Amino acid sequence: MTYLIITFTSISFYFILLNFNWVTNGIHKIMDILNPFILGIAMAYLFWRPLRCIERYLDKYVFRQKVAKHFIRVVGVIVLYLIVLLGLVSLFSFVLPQIIQSLDILYQKIPEFFKGFEASLNTLLLQNGIEGNAYQVISDFIGDISGMILQITGKVIPVLVDVSFKLTSVVLNTFLATVVSIYLLVDKERFFARNRKLMHAVLPGKIIEHIGLVMDIFDDTFGRYFVGQMTDALIVGSLCFVAMNLCGFEFSLLISVIVTCTNVIPYLGPFIGAVPGIFIILMTGGPVQALGFGIMIFILQQIDGNILVPKIIGDSIGVSGFWVLVAIMLGGGLFGFIGVLLGVPTLSVVFKLLKMYAENRLRKKDKPIETEAYIEKRT
C-alpha cells in the first residue's frame, strides 16, 4: 500500500507539472463553481458566535419554559438574519446614497484642486527664479501628472458601470451562499457529527485527537480574531464619524467608512485608512484642515491601540508586531487582500502549534519550557 501511494503521488505530481496551465485553469473553474458554497461556509462561521449569543438570550428571557433546542436554533437563525437584513436595508437606504453623493462632489472637485495646485506650484517656481527650460520641464511634468490623474478619475465611472452589469451574478451567488449558511447554522451539530463519524470510520483514534486539537486552535484563533477585528473596526469607524462631525470636517461618512474598512487590517490598517482621508481633506479644506484631521486620526489610533484592541482582541493573536507585518506582506503578496486578512491568524495558528510541539519535546527531555530560562546572561 505504501509503494502504491508513493507511485500514485509521483505520477500525479508529474502529470501536474506537464499540464500546469490546464490544472490551474481547472482549479479556477472549480473554485468559481464552489464560490457560493465557500462564501456560505464563511458566512456561517462568522455568524455562529452572534447566533450563540442570540440563542442564550432567547433561552434565558424569551423561552423560559422548556422547548426543543432545535426550535430555539431556528428562531435564533431567523432573528440573526432579520438583524442582518435590517443592517443591509439601513446601509442601502441611508449610508450608500450619502457615500455616492460624497464621491460625486469629490469627483467634481478633483480637477479644480489639481488645476489650482499646478498654478500655485508654477507661481512658486517663477518666484524662486526657475525659468527657461527648467521651468518648462517642471511645468510640463506637473501638467502630465495632473492630466494622468484626471484620466484615471475619468475612468472610474466606466468601471462602475461595468461592475453594475455583474451585479446579477453577485446577487445570485450571495443568495445561494445565504441558503448554504442557513443550512449549516440550523443543522450544525448533525453536520459535524457526520464528519466525526466518517473520521472514526477511516482514521486511528490518535490522529482524530490531533485533528480535533488543531481544529480547536484554528477555531479559537480565527473566531476571536475576526470577531474582535470587526468589532474594533466598527467602534473606531463610529468614533471617527463622531469626531469628524464635532470638528466640522467634510465627507465624514465617506472617510469613516474607509477608516472602518481598513482598520480590519492590524497595525497597517489605521495608517492605510488615514492616507485617503488626509488627501480628501487636503483637496476640500486645505493643508490646515488636513493637518488637523491627521492629528485627530493619530489620537484615535492611540486610543484604539492602547485601550480598545487589548480589551476586545486581547492576546488572541499571540504574535509580535514584527511577525504581524511579515504575515501581512507575505499573505498580501501571495493571495492579495484575502491573504492580508488571513495571514495574521494563520501565522498565529502556526506559532501556537510550534509552541505546543516544542514544549512537549522539552517536557520529555525534562527541560524548562519558559523562554526566560534560555536567555543568555553575560557579565
TrEMBL record:
Q: Pfam families recorded for this chain? A: AI-2E_transport
Membrane topology category: Multi-pass membrane protein
Main localization of the protein?
membrane
Q: Which organism is it from?
A: Holtiella tumoricola
Gene Ontology cellular component list: plasma membrane
Protein's GO biological process: transmembrane transport
Similarity remark: Belongs to the autoinducer-2 exporter (AI-2E) (TC 2.A.86) family.
- From the Swiss-Prot or TrEMBL record, give the protein name: AI-2E family transporter
Q: Which residues cross the membrane?
A: 5-24, 30-51, 71-96, 167-186, 271-300, 312-330, 336-354
Q: Which key words are in the record?
A: Cell membrane, Membrane, Transmembrane, Transmembrane helix, Transport
In terms of domain of life, where is this protein from?
Answer: Bacteria
Localisation per UniProt entry: Cell membrane
